Amino acid sequence: MLKALILSSVVAVASGQTVVSFEVASIKPSPPAMLGSGFRLPGGGRFEATHVTVKDMVAFAYDVRDFYVSGGPSWASTDRYEILAKTDEGATRLQMREMLKLLLADRFKLVVRHETKQATVYRLLVGRSNPKLKQSAGTSGFLKFVSRGHIEGDGVTMSGLASYLQTLLGQVVQDQTGLMANYDFSLNWTPDEGQAGKPGAGAAPRNPDDDSAASIFTALQEQLGLKLESSKGPVDNLAIEHVEKPSEN
Asked: 152 φ, ψ to 5°?
């Protein structure tokens, strides 16, 4: 087990702002059988990361999706860690991200660089017919995962739907529908293997009586009157140049 690391309140410059590092932070490997992963800021200046990889940490620290992070050794995508850290109670989410950058540089010797790559970019557009969307009376912006391949939107914007599709497909999705309201909708499709583990994977199994076999692309057109068009375009990417496993203390 990795012992807790006590960090001094080192002042550093990150993103043009003065940032103070975590006052106290512990890093240890996750139990192999642990389920679930993610980041929590429960308040009181606490930061928690559960069952996350180095690539997960880089994505969170730099506020990008995980598919925008490339490079590094294979263990950076497979080895998982637990982090518990503490800082000033008034620290913001942005400051926490900057502190995580400092922690990664200090404990994992992380070095990253920005690079532009050509990648598939999807545009979310209105189809040939009118959109099959119900304008919402509210603005909750809630997306419910009913089962794998079945989501329901409650007051969701098209940019919110595009954001979900981006995570589902692992590709950039740009909202170009021109629809600015909040909408209620239901969407059913048959996930392919490439979407395994994406949002909704932990939801209830798909109803076996549902005979819908539509792909996400077909479902968007037939059920919502929307479409996804793909093209190649420049995408800003974070490349891991150097990283080391944290040493035991």
From this structure: -130, 130
Task: Answer whether 104's CB lies under 8 Å from 110's CB.
Answer: yes
Q: In what order do the strands lie in the sheet with 172-175?
A: 69-71, 226-242, 111-126, 172-175
Residues 223 and 183 in one domain: yes
Task: Give the total number of structural domains in the chain.
Answer: 2
Q: Tell me the angle at which helices 54-61 and 93-107 cross, rounded to the nearest 10 degrees.
A: 140
Where is 153: in which H helix or E strand? strand 150-156
Q: What is the dihedral of CA 179, 185, 186, 191, to 10 degrees?
A: 20
The alpha carbon torsion through 38, 43, 47, 51 (nearest 10 deg) reads -30
Is the separation of the CB atoms in 106 and 56 below 8 Å? no
Q: Is residue 243 part of a domain?
A: no
Beta bridge partners of 70: 239
145 and 84 within one domain: no
Same domain, 65 and 148: no
The percentage of the chain sitting over the pLDDT mark of 90, rounded to a whole number, equals 59
Q: What is the pLDDT of residues 33-71, one digit of tens each?
A: 777 889 999 999 999 999 999 999 999 999 888 888 999
Its pTM stands at: 0.67
Measured in residues, the chain has a length of 249
Strand partners, 135: 183
